[in-house]
């Protein structure tokens, strides 16, 4: 055997041994994630902790709910004052509107607070309202009828809703829609709140 051939065999053997040993020591690494990630919408879901999770007490939050108050709201239909409600819900804006619909407590009524709105009839969405927040605009669509005795009532309700929702830093403007999807209190039929 010539010298060149034996060197080639030796080098090939060393290379194969090296590759074999190297392959045994390598850990398989997953390929890098090249997919594009998009933020998913926030969905509020309550879940029970698994047995291995520790259960923490939900954080108590104070939320303002604005109601018309007598006698000031008799002269200024947009006059509202806040009362404080507490919740452990993370959906604080939804909670605040629920409390607005429930109305003032007996103690609050005794000192002049009055209801901001009443809902009547059946729901067309399975609940009293839907609330969505996008681009600093809250869109509140009622799913039950809101009987309106006049513009003063509409102004009180609008002021209470807007003041209640605008307390949250994520909300700068409010669109209020009735059961039919039209602007609440817009007697023109032009749906100016959507423009």
TrEMBL record:
Domain GerMN: 65-177
Domain of life: Bacteria
Pfam short name (any one): Germane
Keywords, alphabetical: Signal
InterPro entries hit by this protein: GerMN
Signal peptide range: 1-23
Protein name: GerMN domain-containing protein
Organism name: Moorena bouillonii PNG
